[in-house]
Amino acid sequence: MTLRSWLFVPGDSERKLLKASSCGADAVVIDLEDAVAPEAKGTARMQAARWLAAHRQQVLSGQATARWVRINPLHSNLWREDLAVILSGQPDGIIVPKARGPEQLRMLSAELYELEQRNGITSNATRLIAMVGETAASALTIPAYATEELPRLAGLTWGAQDLAVAIGASRMRDGAKGAGGWTDTFRLVRSQALLAAHARAGVALETPYADFADLKGLKATAEAAKADGFTGMLAIHPDQVPVINQAFAPTEKEAAEARRIVELFAANPGAGALPLDGRMVEQPHLLQARRVLEALRG
Questions:
Q1: Which residues bind substrate (predicted)?
Q2: Residue 162 marked as a ligand binder
């Protein structure tokens, strides 16, 4: 299944958790980090574990969204407590905020291995997505994710807002009121995250769009992310989910062309390149066409 929309839900909000699975997101990410005040961390963990357990049966029957959890950073003293509680709910994966490099993920993987054994979970079943480039130091480690041996790593995303705070940037985008493209530093981090994710054949998730009321701006941003090669996008409000889902779904034009390319090669087995509408289509076009049709099947 192609996971387009990844909705963050505060772990300490029972009301929001109750609504999470019905909002249409491909993946629900229970947030134990930024959206939860320090004094509410314990409550958030327990509610997250209960939600994960309650929705596990739906996952087993193939009817539910993917269940992920964003834990607290690995340089904090909170993440081990997060894992000790939530692994009982057998989440599909963990989003690792403010990741500082592959070595941190190896440490986390070792901890997960022990917890998986205790909770009857198949080894390496708990996947990881690293949030990279949220500090200057972590941004410099992004290329390493492309080649390191990290069996759990399912993909990468990046955090524009945290990076801006970390480096003291007063703008992230060019143009009036920040309506233009990313400035050079943010463009570099974004591009490296995208390339490293694809180098691993993993998911590449666009950073959240902060103005959740601006659905027009979100639409343009999500469409640009898809066009640039991102496979999905993080959401911070349920209203963003349908916009992201539509933006990352193949258009009718894309689907029609994909079918024509697949049918053309099926009718000419063994061909490496074939003419179509005055241009040549080759094996990379066939691969992309198959991806489009796979996305349509969900």
A1: 70, 134
A2: yes
